[in-house]
Amino acid sequence: MCGRFVVANVASELVGVLRVDIESDDLPQPSYNVAPTAQVGIVLDSAKTDPPTRRLESARWGLVPGWAKDPKIGVKAFNARSEELEDKPMFRQALIKRRAIVPATGYYEWATTDDGKVPYFISPADGSPMLFAGLYEWWKDPQKAEDDPTKWLLSFTILTRDAVDPLGSIHDRMPLFVDADFADAWLDTEVDNVGDLLDAAVDAAPAVVERLTDHEVGREVGNVRNDAPDLIRPV
Fold first, then answer.
1. Which of 43, 93, 110, 159 could be cross-linked to 101 through a Cys-Cys bond (beta carbons 3.0 to 4.6 Å apart)?
2. 2 included as an active-site residue
3. Is the distance from CB of 139 to CB of 72 less than 8 angstroms?
4. Who contacts 226 (Cβ-Cβ below 8 Å, separation ≥6)?
5. What residues contact 184, with CB distance under 8 A and at least 6 apart?
6. Distance between CA 15 and CA 218 in Å, rounded?
């Protein structure tokens, strides 16, 4: 959890919801079956400008810290438990200075039943964008030349927490949801106490759950090669 999600026409809505200043020109196409290592649009505040510039950037799902020797480490870091961030070297520095918001239309979760695992699609009932709390990192490829524009890899992870009902009846974990009103605080690069900020995000997430809806979908979503609007239709 969260291992698959949907991004459909969300980027254009973000300008109003999150007041994005700049949209990257290499944003990925909409997808109904986003899986780890895929490129996804994320929102971050660049501290290199004053005031910080809010950007919508294309990033790879699966966090690759700057000290990593190989980007393959990101395959196992597509999620990060919010309660462990401050104790894990892989996420500690990103929590302090490199927080992101990952916009989505909704996400998939699998419930364990007597008949096997059953996928559900979970999304805001009013059709508004779903916002996940995330962390991002920049990784420099030592094998590429300094003037190679592809030498830098931007990657991210989605934070999770214990699920609350009704989502708890589907799975014991859920993404750490961010309300649009909390976005500025989460993205603020000058926060003094990130522990308090993280606690506030965890405490606020259940209120977002109250505005979500879910329904069972077909098992075709289990194959990443399937990517079409039909995947989110109720069965």
1. 43
2. yes
3. no
4. 33, 220
5. none
6. 32
CB 183 within 8 A of CB 197: no
Tell me, yes or no, if 86 is annotated catalytic. no
For residue 235, what pLDDT band results from cuts at 50, 70 and 90?
very high
Per-residue pLDDT tens for 146-177? 888 889 999 999 999 999 999 999 999 999 99
Residue 205's alpha-carbon distances to 91, 182, 198, in angstroms, are: 20, 10, 11
Question: Across the strands, what pairs with 6?
Answer: 106
Active-site entry in 23, 83, 86, 109: 109
Across 197-221, b (16+ Cβ under 10 Å) vs e yields bbeebbebbeebbeebebeebbeeb
Task: Give Cα 227 distance to the centre of its chain.
Answer: 19
Catalytic residue, chosen from 2, 13, 57, 220, is: 2
Question: pLDDT by residue (tens digit) across 9-42?
Answer: 877 778 788 989 999 988 999 999 999 999 999 9
pTM attached to this predicted model: 0.95
Q: Is the pLDDT of residue 50 over 90?
A: no
| Residues with Cβ within 8 Å of residue 68, at least 6 apart in sequence | 74, 139
Mean pLDDT of 194-216: 94
Nearest to 180 by CA among 124, 221, 136: 124
Contact 213, 125 (CB under 8 A): yes
Q: What is the overall mean pLDDT for the chain? A: 92
Helices (H), 77-179: 89-97
Structure tokens at 62: 């699966």
